[in-house]
């Protein structure tokens, strides 16, 4: 029996309406609507037509995988996106998660239980203190973190780069039973923002395993991210007497944005409120709001690629076989995984 959730998932992933699929497949919208509402079992010919239109193998529509909604964080950001955009992002993340579920079954290269959970209330800690504890737990040396993505993946988190096709949402993180922790990153952001966002999502994984107010979670995650990337005692000497020119050099060394450095200088009481306002005015006048100078390269994750390589090189899967494993068409697998360091939500 066809899994109607998979039909809806495939449609959302392609950004199609029911009418779009009807035009592309030759199947009436009325029948598609009935299938998605569980009011009929389509013929083999209808399923094949839908599969061709959506560029998924027929087997995909009979998968029994569980579909997950987006995590409790980022409610306001998602509200700004609009339902169709959210559905496409959610579908792309679910399909990618299904791939990871299949790949990890035969891959043992992910560290287990190396990502702690920290209850701030139980410990009586601030997010900054939790960030310092985690740096110590992972034995991160003093100073800037050279490659945050590598450190997070070494702790057993799988990071996946996707193009969310929007600037309104930077990332999503998940703890799902039976899987390593997952972070889905919007690859279409500058490298400095990417690193801060990754540290922000790391905070959600470490600090937020129980529901709480969205604003509180976001504020805690931002504070954790700042403390993890820029420990106060270590960044303080670099923020004395700041100017945009000086902060540009500090950015290159610490790999964080000039905007974040201005905020940190104010937060550490190294500048007055008037100086803080002045730096922000100069920041805007310089056009930095549209793009800062001294760009930081976007870090590339490796774990997902290693899982694919393990199957193809160590386990001897052919391109056809691994595409079948992942319930993908071979051309789609090749486009997303072969020679492509980052993944895009399909059109």
- 3D shape: elongated
Just give the CATH class of the largest domain: Mainly Alpha
Task: Tally the structural domains.
Answer: 2
In percent, how much strand structure appears in the residues? under 5%
> Radius of gyration in whole Å, from Cα?
23 Å
CATH architecture of the largest domain: Orthogonal Bundle
Rounded mean pLDDT score: 93
Describe the strand arrangement of the main beta sheet, using strand numbers. 1-3-2
Give the end-to-end Cα distance, rounded to a whole number of Å.
27 Å
CATH topology of the largest domain: Arc Repressor Mutant, subunit A
Total beta-strand segments: 3
Major sheet summary line: 3 strands, mixed
Order of helices and strands: HHHHHHHHHEEEHHHHHHHHH
The helix tally amounts to 18
Low-pLDDT residue spans:
341-347
The helix/strand class is mainly alpha
Describe the structure.
The chain has 347 residues and is mainly alpha-helical. It folds into 2 domains: 1-64, Orthogonal Bundle (434 Repressor (Amino-terminal Domain)), CATH 1.10.260; 68-230 and 298-347, Arc Repressor Mutant, subunit A. 54% of the residues lie in helices and 4% in strands. It has 18 helices and 3 strands. It has helices spanning 4-14, 18-25, 29-36, 44-54, 75-81, 83-104, 120-123, 127-137, 148-154, 191-207, 214-229, 232-235, 244-254, 258-267, 273-285, 303-314, 319-325, 330-337; strands at 158-162, 171-174, 182-186. A 3-stranded mixed sheet has the order 1-3-2, with helices on both faces. Helix 1 (4-14) packs across helix 6, helix 8 (127-137) packs across helix 11 (214-229) and helix 17 packs across helix 18 (330-337). Residues 341-347 have low confidence and may be disordered.
């Amino acid at each position: 029996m066809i899994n109607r959730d998979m039909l809806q998932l495939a449609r959302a992933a392609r950004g199609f309406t029911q009418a779009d699929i009807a035009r592309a497949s030759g199947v009436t919208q009325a029948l598609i609507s009935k299938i998605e509402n569980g009011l009929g079992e389509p013929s083999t010919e209808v399923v094949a037509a839908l599969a061709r239109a959506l560029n998924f193998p027929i087997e995909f529509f009979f998968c029994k995988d569980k579909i997950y909604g987006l995590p409790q964080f980022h409610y306001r950001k998602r509200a700004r996106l609009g339902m169709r955009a959210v559905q496409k992002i959610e579908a792309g993340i679910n399909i990618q998660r299904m791939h990871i579920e299949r790949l990890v079954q035969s891959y043992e290269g992910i560290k287990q239980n190396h990502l702690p959970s920290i209850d701030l209330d139980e410990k009586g800690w601030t997010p900054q203190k939790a960030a310092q504890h985690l740096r110590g737990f992972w034995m991160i040396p003093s100073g800037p973190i050279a490659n945050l993505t590598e450190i997070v993946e070494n702790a057993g988190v799988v990071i996946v780069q996707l193009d969310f096709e929007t600037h309104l949402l930077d990332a999503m993180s998940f703890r799902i039973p039976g899987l390593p922790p997952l972070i889905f990153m919007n690859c279409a952001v500058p490298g400095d923002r990417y690193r801060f966002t990754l540290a922000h999502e790391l905070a959600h994984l470490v600090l937020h395993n129980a529901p709480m107010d969205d604003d509180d979670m976001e504020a805690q995650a931002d504070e954790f991210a700042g403390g993890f990337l820029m420990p106060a005692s270590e960044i303080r000497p670099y923020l004395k007497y700041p100017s945009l020119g000086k902060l540009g050099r500090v950015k290159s060394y610490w790999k964080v944005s000039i905007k974040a450095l201005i905020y940190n200088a104010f937060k550490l009481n190294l500048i007055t409120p008037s100086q803080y306002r002045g730096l922000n005015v100069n920041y805007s006048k310089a056009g930095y709001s549209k793009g800062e100078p001294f760009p930081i390269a976007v870090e590339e994750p490796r774990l997902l690629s290693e899982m694919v390589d393990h199957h193809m090189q160590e386990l001897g899967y052919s391109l056809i076989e691994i595409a079948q494993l992942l319930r993908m068409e071979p051309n789609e697998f090749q486009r997303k995984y072969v020679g492509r360091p980052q993944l895009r939500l399909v059109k």
